[in-house]
C-alpha cells in the first residue's frame, strides 16, 4: 500500500531526521509486519511517526511512540543538530508540543499513542509482543545498546525490526546504530531491506 500524498506532504514539512525515501520504506516495512502493535523509540516532532502511524491506521492497529522529549546529546545547545526554536520557557528542549501538533494535523491521534519517558523505563512497564520495533533514539553507544537490549526481545516471531542511522563506514556517521544492527544479526534477525541509513530486519518465525 502506498502512502497517501497528503500524508507524504505533511511528513515532508515536519521537522526532523527522516528523509522521504527512508520514511516510505518505514511505511512499507510496517505493512510487512504481522498484526500487532508497533513501537518507535525516538519521536522528536513526529516526522517518522507520520509514516509509521499512517501504516498503523491502514492496518487497523496502533503505533506507540516513546521519547522523553528533551532531545538527544546532538540536539543540545552547541551541538550540530540543535534547533533553538524547540527550547521551552524553562530554557530546555521540549519537542512534545510539536509531536502533538503533528499528530493532530495528520489526524492520527486515534492511532498513535505518545509515551513521554525514558526508553528503558517505558520498556520495563510494557509487556508487549511487537509486530514491529523502530529504533531511532539516542545515538551514543550506551543509548543505542540500551534501546536494543530493553526492547528487541519483545519483537514477535515474524516481527520486524528497523534501525535508523546505520553507517557501516565510520566516515559516514556514528557507529552505535551499526553496532545494534550487527547485534541483531548475531541474535538471529535477518536482513529484509536497506534504504539509505535505514535497515529493516525480521525475526524468523
Ligand atoms: N524519529 C525522529 C527523530 C528522532 S531523534 C524523526 O523522524 O525525526 C532522537 C530522539 O530520541 C530525540 O527526540 C530524543 O529526545 C530521543 N531520545 C534520546 N534518548 C532517549 C531515551 N533514553 N529515552 C527516550 N527518548 C530518547
Ligand atoms: Mg534517525
Largest sheet entry: 7 strands, mixed
Content-based structural category: alpha/beta
Q: Compute the gyration radius: what is it?
A: 16 Å
Mean pLDDT value: 97
The end-to-end span amounts to: 23 Å
Work out the helicity level.
25-40%
The percentage of residues in β strands lies in 15-25%
Secondary-structure element string: HHEHEHEHEHEHEE
Strand elements, count: 7
Outline type: globular
Bound molecules: S-adenosyl-L-homocysteine, magnesium ion
Which parts are unreliable, with pLDDT below 50 for 5 consecutive residues or more? Answer: none
Task: Enumerate the strands of the largest sheet in spatial order, edge to edge or round the barrel.
Answer: 3-2-1-4-5-7-6
- Give the count of helical stretches: 7
Could you describe the 3D structure shown?
- About 35% of the residues lie in helices and about 20% in strands.
- By secondary structure, it is α/β, with parallel strands linked by helices.
- Helix 1 (about 5-15) packs antiparallel against helix 3 (about 45-60).
- The longest helix has 13 residues, at about 20-30.
- The protein contains seven helices and seven strands.
- The protein starts with a helix and ends with a strand.
- The protein has a seven-stranded mixed sheet with strand order 3-2-1-4-5-7-6, with helices on both faces.
- The radius of gyration is 16 Å and the shape is globular.
- Bound molecules: S-adenosyl-L-homocysteine and magnesium ion.
- S-adenosyl-L-homocysteine (SAH) binds near residues 18 and 44.
Amino acid at each position: 500500500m502506498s502512502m497517501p500524498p497528503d500524508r507524504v506532504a505533511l511528513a515532508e514539512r515536519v521537522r526532523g531526521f527522516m528523509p522521504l525515501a527512508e520514511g516510505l520504506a518505514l511505511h512499507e516495512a510496517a505493512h510487512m509486519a504481522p498484526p500487532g502493535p508497533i513501537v518507535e523509540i525516538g519521536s522528536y516532532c513526529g516526522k517518522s511517526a507520520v509514516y509509521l502511524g499512517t501504516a498503523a491506521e491502514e492496518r487497523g492497529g496502533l503505533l506507540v511512540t516513546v521519547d522523553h522529549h528533551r532531545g538527544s546529546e546532538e540536539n543540545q545547545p552547541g551541538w550540530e543538530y540543535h534547533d533553538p526554536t524547540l527550547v521551552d520557557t524553562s530554557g530546555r528542549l521540549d519537542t512534545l508540543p510539536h509531536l502533538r501538533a503533528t499528530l493532530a494535523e495528520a489526524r492520527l491521534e486515534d492511532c498513535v499513542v505518545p509515551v513521554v519517558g525514558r526508553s528503558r523505563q517505558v520498556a520495563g512497564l510494557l509487556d508487549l509482543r511487537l509486530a514491529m520495533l523502530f529504533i531511532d533514539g539516542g545515538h551514543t553507544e550506551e543509548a543505542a545498546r540500551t534501546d536494543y537490549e530493553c526492547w528487541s526481545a519483545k519483537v514477535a516471531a515474524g516481527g520486524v525490526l528497523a534501525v535508523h542511522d546505520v553507517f557501516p563506514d565510520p566516515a559516514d556517521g556514528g557507529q552505535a546504530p551499526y553496532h545494534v544492527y550487527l547485534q541483531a544479526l548475531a541474535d538471529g534477525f535477518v536482513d529484509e531491506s536497506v534504504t539509505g541509513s535505514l535497515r529493516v530486519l525480521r525475526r524468523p518465525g
